[in-house]
Amino acid sequence: MKTINRISTVLTILILILAWAAYPSPGTTAEYRSDVSKGQSAGSVVGTVWLVGAYEKPAPLKVFKNRDFCGPYVANESLLVNRDGGVRNTVIILHPMNWQTRAQPVSIVLDNRNCAFSPRIQVAPLGSELRLKNSDPILHTVHARLGRETLFNVGLPTWRQVSKSLIRSGIIKIDCDVLHTWMSATIVVTTSPYYAVTDQHGRFAVERMPAGEYEIETWHEKLGSRNRRLLVAENAQTAVDIVYNLNQ
């Protein structure tokens, strides 16, 4: 009889624990969602980032070291705009307004190739793994900063590869410290699973999104940030144009 009572008590405690875990904590307005639920129609957002005003292509950057391999100058890719005004390498992140999200970590790569970081701009979910490599026959470093704080500073001879976990969200700026002053990259780490980087035409697409209200955050290394609200409908494509004006 005592054994039965003990089993009953243990089962009761387990049920209470499970019920408590399933109950939202104070201040939580909605459940966590990271994708479209079963049976729910998916929405999508497509758009273009435009630059308005007198655009001048940035002048090439002077090379101070390893000129025998890199050449005397390298292209300045800090602001790439096509002839129609589409802006490349703009980060787009959509943040749900009425529920929280948990983006699944992924694996991304940052290479040193032809005396430049590749890719220059990328987005990764919080907790993702970053693999650092060097495809050049010269020494590079990867010095990553979040604000003024150094997250890591890794030397990369051509034979070495290193992995780092992206455990802090925000805009991570990356430089090469061995007098490769022209080299620059950015990794934007986010908790949202809804993100993209614009292509050579300034276009982007984010798919499989639950219907609802979002804040769309736009970031470019030279043009800065823009924020606005956007309504995503079920089983529909929402189109948006984002405009940076050099005259303002």
Total beta-strand segments: 18
Multimerization status: single chain
Question: Helix content range of the residues, please?
Answer: 10-25%
* CATH domain fold name: Immunoglobulin-like
CATH superfamily heading:
Cupredoxins -  blue copper proteins
Derived structural class: mainly beta
Please state the overall shape, judged from the principal axes of the Cα atoms: globular
The spatial strand order of the largest sheet comes to 7-13-12-9-10
Q: Span from first to last CA?
A: 81 Å
Overall domain count: 1
Uncertain regions spanning at least 5 consecutive residues: 1-5, 7-34
CATH architecture assignment name? Sandwich
CATH class: Mainly Beta
- The number of distinct helices, counting runs of at least 4 residues, comes to 2
Major β-sheet profile: 5 strands, mixed
Rg (C-alpha, Å): 23 Å
